[in-house]
Amino acid sequence: SEVVHVGIMAAAKRVDTTGAGDLYAAGFLSGLCEGLTLRQCGTIGAIVAGKVIEVVGTTFSEEAWQHAFQLVEKVRSEKYLF
């Protein structure tokens, strides 16, 4: 049995928490489906959850998506974990 503690993604601004849990789960599960480590999965979940609380609702700008994708790529290569 393994316990992994994952930090949070610091949001530039906290606007609305709608969808944060759903996006955390989606990010975590996408990493799990890719065969990533639990820490990588949790970090991806934290990234997308941290991004969604910066906007009203659950619609990201293209710039926000690109930033999230860049961070996720770093997680996949284990260069960005928290």
UniProtKB/TrEMBL annotation:
InterPro entries: Carb_kinase_PfkB-like (IPR052700), Carboh/pur_kinase_PfkB_CS (IPR002173), PfkB_dom (IPR011611), Ribokinase-like (IPR029056)
This protein's UniProt keywords: Kinase, Transferase
Domain Carbohydrate kinase PfkB: 4-63
GO MF annotations in UniProt: kinase activity
Family: Belongs to the carbohydrate kinase PfkB family.
Protein name: PfkB family carbohydrate kinase
